[in-house]
């Protein structure tokens, strides 16, 4: 478990004059995704039904992820008192479903599932680190600092279990790379796009996955700096089984920064 609760956040330091309305829209979406950890706990419970030790860790992970959603949601309600967190979450849950019917990992093995979880935690830890560094509002900065630390710790949890699973599943580096790349590609799937839609669009709006994802990305991509991308690449390489530092990290960091800068400029021009 983490070392913070909603009660330890300095909510009285909230400064409405320092709220960035662009970041606010993405925080609304993030609050919904984090709050939805219950479903992922159920899914992982099916995948790892034979692994009681891991499931004990998952139960703690679910509690922390839900706390992330509650903290972000509470901050949003300070920044935008008219926003109905519960209604937005219900709308999100109605339109996006985790594959709870699965009896095994959609990644093909337990090691594959651990690999995918490492990639997810890499993305969240780097994103909240970038948000923390970009935020001017002091309470949001504090919340994102806490969440980023939790997500990095979650990465270490899944990585430790990945190593254990690899002794049995014998997943090659190539297979881990394929799964990792596939999970990175899924960052533009319906989950985040629909969360953005459910959190920000009026009740009579029609969902457009591409438009919602572009709107989210236009606000997220400019937040990243070299340190965020470099650390994320190190985490990905480590999960694959490659040297996390060195020439490959430097190359991938340059490519990642180019991708973010290019697409941020393109989306800004389009007014996404």
Describe the protein:
With 272 residues, this protein is mainly α. The protein has a single domain (17-220), classed as Ferritin, CATH 1.20.1260. It has eleven helices and no strands. Helix 4 runs antiparallel to helix 8 (190-200). The radius of gyration is 18 Å and the shape is globular. The model has no long low-confidence stretch (mean pLDDT 90).
- Relative helix content: over 70%
Based on the coordinates given, report the CATH architecture: Up-down Bundle
User: What is the total domain count?
Assistant: 1
Shape: globular
Taking pLDDT < 50 over at least 5 consecutive residues as the criterion, the unreliable ranges are none
Alpha plus pi helix count: 11
Instruction: Let me know the number of strands.
Output: 0
Mean pLDDT: 90
N- to C-terminal distance? 38 Å
Structural class label: mainly alpha
Here the CATH topology equals Ferritin
CATH class: Mainly Alpha
Features:
272 residues; mainly alpha; Ferritin; 11 helices; 72% helix; 0% strand; globular
Question: Could you give a quick summary of the protein structure above?
Answer:
Helix content is 72%, strand content 0%. By secondary structure, the chain is mainly α.
């Amino acid at each position: 478990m983490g070392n913070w609760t909603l009660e330890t956040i300095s909510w009285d330091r909230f400064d409405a004059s320092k709220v960035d309305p662009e970041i606010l829209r993405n925080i609304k979406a993030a609050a919904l995704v984090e709050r939805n950890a219950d479903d992922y706990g159920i899914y992982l419970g099916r995948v790892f039904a034979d692994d009681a030790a891991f499931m004990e860790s998952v139960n703690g992970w679910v509690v922390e992820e839900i706390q992330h959603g509650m903290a972000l949601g509470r901050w949003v309600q300070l920044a935008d008192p008219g926003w109905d967190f519960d209604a937005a979450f219900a709308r999100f849950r109605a339109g996006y479903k985790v594959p709870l019917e699965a009896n095994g990992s959609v990644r093909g093995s337990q090691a594959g599932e651990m690999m995918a979880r490492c990639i997810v935690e890499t993305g969240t830890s780097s994103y909240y680190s970038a948000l923390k560094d970009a935020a001017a509002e002091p309470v949001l900065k504090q919340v994102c600092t806490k969440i980023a630390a939790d997500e990095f710790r979650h990465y270490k949890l899944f990585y430790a279990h990945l190593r254990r699973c690899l002794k049995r599943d014998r997943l090659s580096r190539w297979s881990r790379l394929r799964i990792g790349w596939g999970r990175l590609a899924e960052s533009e799937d319906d989950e985040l796009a629909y969360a953005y839609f459910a959190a920000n669009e009026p009740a009579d709006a029609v969902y457009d996955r591409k438009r919602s994802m572009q709107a989210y990305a236009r606000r997220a991509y400019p937040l990243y700096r070299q340190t965020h991308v470099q650390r994320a690449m190190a985490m990905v390489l480590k999960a694959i089984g490659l040297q996390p530092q060195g020439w490959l990290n430097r190359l991938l960091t340059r490519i990642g920064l180019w991708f973010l800068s290019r697409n941020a400029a393109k989306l800004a021009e389009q007014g996404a």
